[in-house]
């Protein structure tokens, strides 16, 4: 769609952008950090990697050849293999590495294509990178880049786009007192309940506004930024859930969602989430019969996901068993298929010495089929 607001950058405070970048790295979402020359993008990425206890591999796209990503051809025993560069083999040695692809938009088109394969397929030459390797790219806007160009649509649509500008107050403090790394939100290893909730929200939104599922901009500049596609909607629910689970705050969720979908669709989604008017999870845990079992599928999914998210955030045997009682209300109303997703999330929260609750009996066939019990 031409003229939509998805191609407009959504700026946030320096702290919000920093936290959004940290959450995206932990959620496995590739990020493209936009900003003018000398704004400290490299320092920011390296600082966040340090805060998270991860190594950082810096690869400058503008001075690399395609072979630095596609591998160098080597003839052995009559066949050709593609040897990966050293930076890639170090990623295998440290699977939690943050790969920082700097000056992405000033790379030659052939290099951009090779970089796309790394981000999309996690392959460098004949080497496959571990799934836990995170990708962050940095780019100057084309008008500020020597030999810069707009990003291709396929590559742009695989990144979460964040705009970075150094904060004068923070920069002044760093100059006077040193550049001590600031704490960043930590995403818990398990945040399935939050993912279930945001998945339900996204599905409900798309069902109510199906035209927003894909809105490819018609202009080249817009195609090189954030825009809605089935891929970015899927990733939006993951980063929103990760930020939610980390307690990163609404501004961070807004930046992450807008960085994938564009400003307009992100505002609509978050407004939809605010207007769902879901029941208080704590109230449902106390009085399971208050579950609105006659609600639409998406609303009931979101209500049950909210219950599992509340239990995950304050886990105890009593609260876990109370959540099962909420699910049993849905079962009794003939909505077991809707409650099955939350049942799976509750199983994953169970500690080894906890007994199986009676309310889980209705889900036993499904849980056995999934090899969860």
The profile of the biggest β sheet is: 5 strands, parallel
Order of helices and strands: HEHEHEEHEHEEEHEHHHHHHHHHHH
The outline comes out as: globular
Kindly state the mean pLDDT as a whole number?
86
Helix content: 40-55%
For the biggest β-sheet, the strand order reads: 2-5-8-1-9
Radius of gyration: 23 Å
Structure explained in plain terms:
The chain has 373 residues and is of the alpha/beta class. It is 50% helix and 10% strand. It is built from 17 helices and nine strands. It has helices spanning 14-27, 41-51, 67-70, 86-93, 109-121, 153-156, 168-177, 192-208, 220-223, 230-246, 250-261, 263-274, 281-286, 297-313, 317-332, 336-349, 364-369; strands spanning 31-34, 56-60, 72-76, 79-83, 98-102, 123-124, 127-128, 134-139, 160-163. A hairpin with a 2-residue loop joins strand 6 and strand 7. It is globular. The N and C termini lie far apart (48 Å).
In short:
This protein has 373 residues and is of the alpha/beta class. It is built from 17 helices and nine strands. It is globular.
What is the topology?
Layout: H1 14-27, E1 31-34, H2 41-51, E2 56-60, H3 67-70, E3 72-76, E4 79-83, H4 86-93, E5 98-102, H5 109-121, E6 123-124, E7 127-128, E8 134-139, H6 153-156, E9 160-163, H7 168-177, H8 192-208, H9 220-223, H10 230-246, H11 250-261, H12 263-274, H13 281-286, H14 297-313, H15 317-332, H16 336-349, H17 364-369
Helix pairs in contact: 1-10, 1-11, 8-10, 8-14, 10-11, 11-12, 14-15, 14-16, 15-16
